[in-house]
Amino acid sequence: xxxIGKKAIHLMTPEDRKKALETKALWVDVGALSGDxxxxxxxxxxxxxxxxxxxxxxxxxxxxxxxxxxxxxxxxALEAIRMLSDDPPVACATAVATVQEEIGFTGGxxxxxxxxxxxxxxxxxxxxxxxxxxxxxxKELGEHQLGGGPVLSRGSAAHDNVFQxxxxxxxxxxxxxxIQASPKATRTDADGIFLTRGGVPTGxxxxxxxxxxxxxxIISIEDLFHSARLIAAFIRRLTPETDFTPR
Length: 247
What we know:
Elements: E1 3-5, H1 14-17, E2 27-29, H2 35-40, E3 56-57, E4 62-65, H3 68-85, H4 108-117, E5 122-129, H5 138-141, E6 151-155, H6 160-173, E7 178-182, H7 189-194, E8 202-209, E9 217-220, H8 221-237
Parallel strand pairs: 5-8, 6-7
Antiparallel strand pairs: 1-2, 3-4, 4-9, 6-8
Helix pairs in contact: 3-8, 6-8
């Protein structure tokens, strides 16, 4: 256990106080008196760390926590499988949690998983920017708010027939949703899956998320269950005759 250390504001120049701190200007203080003591504690170069931040319940069904991006994706996938468990669908559904989405510019673990599984269709689950906060350009990002349901991506890495089937299912099930334009890369696992082997018909479902990549991300629990319901209903529609080939 340690704390993030930095130069006290009193010791900074007026110019430095106005600047955002770079990572190299921070350090982790474990209370040790020397480097030898740190090493005796078992701390080594490149040890992984996480911010010690638990979940906080806010107004309504809102929660705040660290790493909501993308722990909620794993929850939604497992909840969808749970919804299917009492009455298994015709299609075989596999939930996969992967790594390196943030740093794997070649697709990370999602591409490796898709390569091994060779799915007929895939749904990536991630978060996206909730635009119901001040100083966000809705004309650029669209209108996506907490409690507004899953956000369905439409663009180069989202197969149009999968997108259409997702919207059809949402309409039939009475699940609220919004649409996000993703003309280039989605910067999610969908990018890696979509281009695996000969190509995988891929859809992308995102959860509206405030303050992404901070220790205090906020989401609506209702959006999680709406997303899981949508995925479960989508899977139930799949049959051996389902064909996503563009016509």
